[in-house]
Amino acid sequence: MKQIEFERWEPDAENPRRLTYAGQRTAEDVFHELEARLDSVGYLPDEYLLLDNRWQNGREMPRDAGFFCRTDYGGSEGIYLDVFLEWYEDSQRRTEHFMTGKTLGESGADMDRMSLISSAITKAIRGDNSIHARYMVVGGQPGPEETMSLNLSPDEQRLVAQALAEQRIRLGPQAEGEEKLLRRMTGSVTEYMDAVGLADRLNEHDRALLAQHDGEPEATPVMGGMQL
Predict the structure, then answer these.
(1) Cα dihedral sign, 69-63-36-29
(2) What would the pLDDT profile of 28-73 be if each residue is shown by its tens digit?
(3) Dihedral, CA of residue 181, residue 185, residue 191 and residue 197, to nearest 10
């Protein structure tokens, strides 16, 4: 994904194939590009994302500015994501608030999502070639071309779990991958099968095997999204 720049670069007058520095972009321009980027991948905070008033009205991004994100629960409600800029001016280090995002939810899943948005902002500005999400990583060792990340809504989680359960029944004990993923999403495969009315399609051997696997240490309830 293309990196969001703080600087403006234009073709050189003498050599159009070469880019030359043409000044800093305005903060509003950078903010709106970032906002559109987050919206395109479904990572806008559900309450709001606002640029600090000090960076409006054409103020330019500082030269060689860095940034950092802070995600935390609010004093009264919701979870906040704050982005700060850091730069040097007259040999003095300056730090100013840049923008704020907010969600009204306060659950662990809401905190995970806001942390995910923070990660997406960092990757958009720093530059990154992988998928900007974290909730589920399917595959072996993490790598830009070896993983797929999904941020699933509760309805989507149920849909995936149902499909995995059906596949587990069809493949039986050979469905090791499906069973492991289903267990990580639902906690207990046996209890999930019972809850959705699929238990009667399991033979006694499968039920015994699932019960044994569900008792393993890795069988931890994580419905709501996790990294595998």
Answers:
(1) positive
(2) 999 999 999 888 888 899 999 999 999 999 999 999 999 999 999 9
(3) -90
Extract the runs of DSSP E, i.e. beta strands, from 12-135.
19-24, 48-51, 66-73, 79-89, 92-103
- Residue 103 main-chain phi, psi, to 5 deg: -125, 145
> What backbone torsions phi and psi does residue 138 show, to the nearest 5 degrees?
-105, 125
Q: How far apart are CA 80 and CA 149, in angstroms?
A: 23
Determine phi and psi for 50, rounding to 5 degrees: -125, 140
Residues 6+ apart with CB under 8 A from 71: 79, 80, 81, 82, 111, 114, 115, 118
DSSP H/E element including 111: helix 108-126
Task: Return the residue matching tokens 């959705």.
Answer: 196
| Amino acid sitting at position 183 | R
**R_g of the chain computed on alpha carbons:** 23
pLDDT of 141 strictly over 60: no
Asked if residues 78 and 103 have their Cβ atoms less than 8 Å apart, the reply is: yes
81-127, pLDDT tens digit by residue?
Answer: 999 999 999 889 999 999 999 999 998 888 988 999 999 899 889 87
